[in-house]
Structure formats: C-alpha cells, structure tokens
Automatic annotation (TrEMBL):
Domain Aminopeptidase N-like N-terminal: 33-201
PANTHER family linked to this entry: PROTEASE M1 ZINC METALLOPROTEASE, PUROMYCIN-SENSITIVE AMINOPEPTIDASE-RELATED
Organism, as annotated: Psychroserpens burtonensis
The protein's name: Aminopeptidase N
Domain of life: Bacteria
Known cofactor(s): Zn(2+)
C-alpha cells in the first residue's frame, strides 16, 4: 500500500515536470510578510501566491530550497478570516519534496487561485547575513533559497514584500515603499511592485545607511544610499548618475519601466553589481573619494546595471543561449552612456580594449559562439557589445534605434530570444541580416578585419595604432611633449621607459601614472621629478612611486615613509599596506614601533574587514613570512567565505603555506582545535 501511494505521488509530480509548468499555470503575484533574524540567520513569515490555471492540471509547484512549511496550505476564497482559519476556507494538499513545494488538487483551466501558508528557512545561499547587513543575490543563486518562487526566468511575477526588522536600519526592496510602521523594537517596511519580473531579480538590502535623492528629467526618483561615515564619498561615487539615467532614457527611446531607481553598496558582495529590478546592489569597494575616483570609479558598473533595467529586467532572455541580449546590451549601452560623458575617444578606446581581450581569448583557444550558453563573460559582455556596435554601423542610427524601441515595446515585461531582436532590425532597416548573424553571433572566430576597419574610423585610434616606439628614436621622445593623445603617450612610455627625460613628467595624471608603473629603475637625474609623483591625486600612482623610490634610494626611505604615512588608498588600503611592509623593512625607521606595525597588518586580515582588504593583507603576510596563529585562523575561516573568489584564494594560499613545515604544523593544530 505504501509503495502504491508513493507511485501515485510520483505520477502527480511526473506529469507536471515532464511538461513545462508554464504551459499549465501562470503565476501572477507573490505577497510575503517576512521576519529576518541575523542571530539565527533565518527567514520566516506569511506567504501568498496567486496564479491562473491555463489548462486542467492535478499538481503545480513552487521552487523552495531547504524551506519548511510551518502551516497547512489554505486556498483563499474571499471569506472572512478567523483565528481557526487564518488564511481562507479550504486546505489544499501539499508536500515539500526535491526542493519544491507541491500543491495537488483538481485545478481547472481558467481559474485564478490564491494559496497562503507560513514557511521558514535558513538559506544556504542567495541571502547573506554579513555583519549587520543582510542582502540578496538571486542571479545564479536562486531566490527560491529564501523565498518560494519560480526559478524559471520565463514566468514573470509581481512581488510585493513586507519586511519586519530591528529599528535603526534601512530596509530596501524592489518597487516603491508604500508604508513604514515603526514599533517599539521593530519596523515594518512594505514595498509595492506594479509590474512583473523574473524571480532572480527579487532583492533585499538591509543595513545602516543614509541617502541622497535626485529626480530624473522624466520624474523618476533616483536614490543613492551610502554608509553614514562615507558622506564625502557620495558625490565621487555617484557622479554622473542622473546624467546617465537621462541619457539612457532618451537613447533607448522607451521610458524607464519601474517606479523608482535605488542603488545601495554592500559589504563583500559576490560581483561588482547586480541589476535587481529598481534596486541595484553593488560592492562597497566602489565607494570612492575624489582621489580614488581617478583610478577606480563606479561609472561603468553604474551605467551597466542601469541599462539592465531595460535589457534583462524589462525584457529577459528565454535561456542561456540568448544571454547576450542582456549582458551584451547592458555593456553596449553603458559604453554609449560613457561616450556621452567622456567623448568619442573614450568610446573607441573601450572598444579597442574589449577587442584586445577578445583576441587574447581567441589566441588561447577559448573563443565560442555568442549563442553558446556556456560562453565566457568576455564573450557575452564584450563580443555582445561589439556585435551591437557593428550592427548599428551597418544599418544606421535611425533603423537601429527604431528597432530597439519596437523590440522593447513588443516584448515588455516578457521574454525574448535573438530572433525577436534581429527580426525587428531587419524590418526597420529593410536589410537581410543573415551574414551579420553568421559573422558576429554564430561564428566562433572573431571578425578581426571588421573590428580593425571599424576602429580606424576614429582619428584617435588611427593615431594610436600608428605609434610604434619599440625602436627608440628622437621622434619617440618628441611624442611625449606633443599634442598626441594621452593613450598614445602611455604607449610611448611603455616602449621607451629607459629613455625618458624630465619633460615627460609634464603631463597629466594618466601619463604620469604610466611613468610610475613602467619606470622602476629611476635615474638619479630624474629623482626630483619622480618624487613629485607621490603628490599626484592617484592611489595607483602613489603606490607604485612609493615602492620604486624606496627601492632605488635607500638613503631617502624615511623621507618617503614620512610623506605617505597618512595615506590609506582604496578600500583595500593598497597604499597603507605597502607602507606597513616598507616600514617593517626599514630598520632605522621607528625602531620601537615594529610590533605595532606588524599587528596592524595582521589586523587587516581579520573577518571584520572587507574581503579585498583581507586578501591584500594575506598576500603581504605571505611575502614577509608574517603569518602567526591569529592570521592563520582568519585564513582558515576565509576558506568558507560566501564570496567564492575569496574562499578560493584562501584555500589556495592555505595549501601553499602547508609546504612550509612550521606553518603546516600550526595549521594542523588550529584546525584540530
């Protein structure tokens, strides 16, 4: 009998799994009232889902990984709720199996049904508790790890979330905040979405933030969040945000499709940024001051994630085969936004760098078709952007923009494949694009001749490509005091670094940075000019110049350390950590302070710091042989960090340390304890 019942249940499941669930049911909305516990790292709450039955079916499911039902499932029928029946009139059979919640009943086509229940989970991924922050990453991790939903990107749902959390925090989610109810200990934040989206775009970000607000030309609220201690970083970090928003709305030709646009930095994020609908989450490593802006700013990521609000969020690729419709478009439109800010030369330089990366990939035998779902990020992002650039050149601005607008209009809040876009461009341009599709989308090999031809349409690129100083001549020295582009001068510096003269230092910050990076052996006659690099508004320049000056002029080491003792650098403290190591290796400098300096370096490896700072500290500790029990404990903990790049780094470094007998024994002892 037991085996027979199991067979019945299996057949229920099998019927829906062997066909696409989207053929039988259309999920309309999800409403959840959630409690998040940082102490327990758990989520629980009341949950309702509304769906339309398209065809008769006996079972449907929600994806729900490691989720437990804490109540029966009730069908809401519109009757008055009671304490005995808090969700509705009728219990619907349910079972949690294979990372899904299954509901089985005699579901009739044409009916709209609403089910409610209470659930609880301790997410293993997709929702992260990091110090006093809580934030999500749905793409590639699945929102269903913390919120029952649909992993299939082709079923778009309207999500309305209410979050109960401790007072004193900002709680952000998709859509518009329509209610904020403050209690004695907790605040309830209620967000409303008006349009559907794929489940991977659901987002939460909870932390201690202040905010700055602007309004776009079209009236969309633009909200920039930041840590209270980072008030001086707000303008450099979010610089050009409104300009890029207004530009993209005009360039794309389709109004921004959501109620508002919010951006929030978080600690130890998995990627640079994530384009959650109306709420971009990005790494707080991009929060920069006015000096950091010159070397490492948020502009490209900012523009890329913003472009995704149309390409990815409004229209979503049906499958990985068409992923370029999201990443290629976001990369291309980010390039256009930067072109609007920095000009044509910047645009063509970015295209050139992207082409170089693609060629390197091809030379390594790693090229793939743009339509291969297993392609690299380089292919999806950079070849995708190049393909759109080439297509626009071929069909013209008017046809390209008209087709893009129709493509978005016809498929808004839906799913798309490559032919949906190409067919619109063919109609708009009245061209057969089969050759283009073959050369740029299907073919594995890069169309290098077409790439070079396109780049040479830029006078700036023609000049750059013509410069060749691998054989030194007077002409090359003259380049550095001429009116050629800064990129051209940097190319010259890289090729004749041993022949530079004082006049080369009379250039702007970018060229001077190249001098700091390429000139590691400093002629005595250039010492004064080289020392001036320590005053540049560039943390990259200062870091390189400090090390090179310290190495070349031992008698001046104390002077260089004194000049740079208060500079931290980026959020990974690139200048400060170098300074600490140089301090430890300058015996005559602050001799009584060495242990304090070493302790500071070790301290930066501890879990309370950003993972990039910790990586930097670990690398320096390895370099100087400075690991001890506290830093090795921290390294062992890092092997289980949620950021995969950092955990891999920690595992690899730990294996390297084990080749040292002293470290191997210490690691063994600490692991056993």
């Amino acid at each position: 009998m037991k085996q027979f019942l199991q067979l019945i249940v299996f057949l229920f499941f099998f019927g829906i799994v062997t066909a696409q669930q989207t053929d039988y049911v259309d999920f309309k909305s999800i409403d959840a009232n959630l409690n998040l516990s940082s102490q327990l790292k758990s989520v629980n709450g009341m949950y309702s889902v509304e769906f339309e039955i398209l065809k008769d079916v006996d079972s449907i499911f929600l994806d729900a990984k490691n989720i437990q039902l804490k109540s029966e499932v009730w069908e809401n029928t519109g009757i008055e709720y009671t304490s005995e029946r808090p969700f509705g009139e009728r219990v619907v059979k349910s079972i949690v199996k294979d990372d899904k919640i299954w509901f089985y009943d005699d579901f009739k086509g044409g009916l709209i049904i609403k089910l409610s229940f209470v659930y609880e989970c301790i997410p293993k991924k997709a929702l992260y508790f990091v110090d006093d922050q809580i934030w999500t990453q749905g793409q590639g991790k699945y929102t269903s790890n913390w919120l029952p939903s649909i992993d299939d990107v082709n079923d778009k749902i309207e999500f309305d979330l209410s979050i109960n959390h401790d007072n004193g925090y900002e709680v952000l989610s998709n859509g518009k905040l329509i209610k904020k109810k403050i209690g004695k200990e907790y605040t309830k934040w209620t967000y409303d979405m008006q349009k559907p989206m794929s489940s991977y775009l659901v987002a939460l970000a909870i932390g201690k933030y202040d905010k700055k607000t602007e309004t776009s030309k079209s009236g969309i609220p633009l909200v920039y969040y930041y840590y209270p201690e980072d008030s001086l970083k707000v303008e450099p970090t979010y610089r050009y945000s409104k300009q890029m928003f207004d530009f993209l709305e005009a360039e794309i030709g389709f109004p921004y499709p959501w109620q508002n646009y919010k951006q929030v930095p978080v600690k130890d994020f998995l990627y640079s940024g994530m384009e959650n609908t109306s709420l971009t989450v990005f790494s707080d490593g991009f929060m920069v001051d006015s000096i950091g802006f010159n070397d490492k700013n948020y502009i490209t990521v900012n523009a890329h994630e913003l472009a995704h609000q149309w390409f990815g969020d409004l229209v979503t690729a049906t499958s990985g085969e068409h992923h370029w419709l999201q990443e290629g478009f976001a990369t291309y439109y980010a390039l256009l936004a930067e072109r609007d800010i920095f000009g044509d030369d910047h645009y063509y330089w970015q295209l050139f760098e992207n082409a170089q990366e693609l060629i390197t990939q091809e030379e390594a035998g790693q090229s793939t078709s743009l339509l291969n779902p297993k392609s690299s990020s380089t292919t999806f992002y950079k070849k995708g952007a190049w393909s759109l650039h080439a297509l626009r050149e071929q069909v013209g601005d008017s046809a390209f923009k008209g087709a893009t607008k129709k493509y978005l209009n016809n498929h808004q809040f839906g799913n798309v494949n490559t032919s949906d876009f190409i067919s619109e461009v063919e109609k708009s341009s009245q061209q057969d694009l089969s050759v283009f599709v073959n050369d740029w989308l299907t073919e594995v090999t890069l169309p290098e001749d077409a790439i070079v031809k396109s780049l040479k349409k830029s006078a700036f690129m023609r000049e750059y490509l013509a410069i060749n100083c691998e054989e030194y001549s007077q002409k090359c020295k003259d380049y550095l005091v001429s009116n050629i582009s800064d990129k051209g001068k940097i190319k010259v510096v890289s090729q004749i670094s041993e022949h530079l003269e004082a006049e080369a230092f009379i250039n702007n910050i970018e060229v001077r940075q190249a001098i700091a990076q390429y000139v590691s052996t400093i002629p005595k006659e250039l010492k004064l000019e080289y020392e001036s690099l320590l005053s540049d508004k560039s943390f990259v320049t200062i870091e390189a110049a400090l090390y090179n000056l310290w190495a070349n002029f031992p008698e001046e080491r104390i002077k260089y350390l004194q000049k740079t003792k208060d500079i931290k650098g980026f959020n990974d403290y690139n200048v400060r950590l170098l300074w600490l190591v140089l301090h430890l290796n300058t015996i005559e400098y602050q001799t009584d302070n060495k242990q304090v300096v070493l302790n500071e370096l070790i301290g930066y490896s501890l879990p309370e710091h950003h993972f990039e700072l910790r990586m930097n500290a670990f690398n320096y500790l390895k370099l100087i042989g400075g690991f001890e029990s506290e830093s090795i404990k921290s390294l062992i903990l890092a092997t289980t960090h949620h950021n995969w790049r950092f955990s891999k780094f920690a595992k690899d470094l730990l294996e390297t340390l084990k080749t040292n007998n002293q470290y191997r024994e210490l690691i063994k002892q600490l692991k056993n304890n």
